[in-house]
Please model this.
Amino acid sequence: MQDTLTIAGKNYSSRLLVGTGKYKDFDETRHAIEASGADIVTVAIRRTNIGQEPGQPSLVDALPPSKFTYLPNTAGCYSAEEAVRTLRLGRELLDGHALCKLEVLGDPHTLFPNMPETLKAAATLVKDGFQVMVYCADDPIQARMLEDIGCVAVMPLASLIGSGMGILNPWNLKLIIEQAKVPVLVDAGVGTASDAAIAMELGCDGVLMNTAIAGAQDPVRMAGAMRKAVEAGRDAFLAGRMPRKYYTACPSSPTSGLIGR
Model:
């Protein structure tokens, strides 16, 4: 049976979601996204042209919405009001597209989420008919609050956006995963393929990344590596790892029927 990611009632074959910023041009963006195998691509409405600048190069020419599911996001927003206004613009540009990524930042230095404003924006957007995937702190209580509001996925950070530091608090992620009834995706902080694999081995439903691919020396090759890492991590999670045995060893080969005995 195919193991699909289901968000807001729709199935996706890839559990890797990829951002579209920071590439040198739209051509490199296209090649990297194709190598990643991603079905869902996230786009910063305030920073990327998807039609709001007629006559200028547009992302939709490189990544046609007929082939990819667009996930408009609120990167660069620092208040609930600003985020809601941005996503309403994105919905208009994408012909009523309801799926979105909400992020409300606390400050420009850490880009850590402002959770009071995030909760406020999420409530407004859900009431307005949006299907909200939400970037949040790795706080199990606030993740549950976002789910109760009606968000279709929660996306706790692994570490700071663009830091490449990997998963700094796996225990909080596990708490969020174990209680959640909606998909949990790691968002922010992934630096290399092993980080993505670890996120999936923990039981995350998916991983969203941008800088880890776009900031690599060879973005297209890194995109392919991330695709394999997410798939391998998911397979390892489903297979069920062997139990950890502290302070004792267990021989790999049989201990009975030894030669000469």
In short: The chain has a mean pLDDT of 91. Residues 41 and 70 are 5 Å apart (CA to CA). Strands lie at 5-7, 10-12, 16-19, 40-44, 69-73, 99-102, 131-136, 153-156, 185-187, 206-209. The longest strand covers residues 131-136.
